[in-house]
Design goal:
With 281 residues, this protein is of the alpha/beta class. It has one domain (3-279): Aldolase class I (TIM Barrel), CATH 3.20.20. It contains twelve helices and eight strands.
Length: 281
């Protein structure tokens, strides 16, 4: 299956819109593992095993591995997810964005070295920095559009001079992703849960694209408001609008600092998944 089909299958199979973010910080690990960067795989694999039947996707953040020289553990984790949760797609959160020749190498890293199903990208350098990823058959890419951090306003909320009026930069990115840039049909957009009005606007501009929505949980995004803003279900003619993939990382990973950390992570993931499902009405 291509990435979009994988999302649909996992969402249906696990009755879920939840993405479990894997942002391992050894200083926050449970007491028995705390401070030991050599146990990143063990910690993350336990989270995966505890939430595999609750998640629509997993999202490892590459910086949390690379900072601790744990790229080999990330490869090990990716292989584990393929064995333990083959039905759940994996989004590598890398936020790459570079010229075409370099992007080709980053695409090989994401899709061949790590075996990710999708990757997050910055669109700032234009389409030729995105296109190499789209050449990998069936693989997905999420473009940063309206991010959850306050500093996103510095650029994303600026108006452009355009023949179509004066769209905000994030609106322009959404239109490009919905239209001419989506050459393989596997593009999506990143929109922060802390901006529900902007989620609704992006959904209006990009009705068929999947939206990766970080910011629920520790960052303060509201699950119900996120679903109301981004989820549309089927249209009047029976066709589906794009899914929403709502990420929670720290609230799940660090639900407990004790030996029960995996059980606590499962309970928090279940609570979040069920809150998202309930918000669909």
């Amino acid at each position: 299956m291509n990435f979009i089909d994988q999302l649909a299958d996992a969402g249906s199979r696990n009755a879920s819109m939840l993405c479990v973010g894997l942002d391992p910080e050894p200083a926050r690990f449970p007491q028995a593992l705390r401070g030991d960067a050599g146990r990143i795989y063990d910690f993350c694999a336990a989270i995966v095993d505890a939430t595999a039947d609750l998640a629509m996707a997993f999202k490892p953040q590459i910086a949390y591995f690379a900072a601790h020289r744990a790229e080999a553990q990330l490869e090990q984790l990716m292989a584990h997810m393929r064995r333990a949760a083959p039905h759940v797609p994996v989004i590598l959160d890398a936020k790459r964005g570079d010229i075409g020749s370099t992007a080709e190498q980053y695409a090989i890293e994401a899709f061949e070295r790590y075996g990710a199903d999708a990757v997050t990208l910055s669109p700032f350098m234009g389409f030729d920095s995105v296109q190499p990823y789209l050449k990998h058959h069936g693989k997905g890419a999420f473009l940063l559009c309206r991010t959850s951090n306050p500093g996103g306003d510095d650029l994303q909320n600026q108006r452009l001079a355009s023949v179509d009026g004066q769209p905000l930069l994030y609106e322009h990115v959404a239109r490009l992703a919905q239209g001419p840039w989506n050459t393989n049909g596997q593009l999506g957009l990143v929109v922060g849960a802390t901006y529900p009005a902007e989620i609704a606007r992006v959904r209006e501009l990009a009705p068929t694209l999947p939206l990766l929505i970080p910011g629920v949980g520790a960052q303060g995004g509201d699950a119900a408001a996120t679903v109301r803003a981004g989820w549309r279900g089927n249209t009047a003619d029976g066709s589906s609008t794009g899914p929403i993939v709502v990420n929670s990382s720290r609230a799940i990973l660090y639900a407990s600092s004790g030996a029960d950390f995996a059980e606590a992570a499962r309970a928090e993931a279940r609570r979040t998944r069920d809150a998202l499902q309930a918000a669909r009405g």
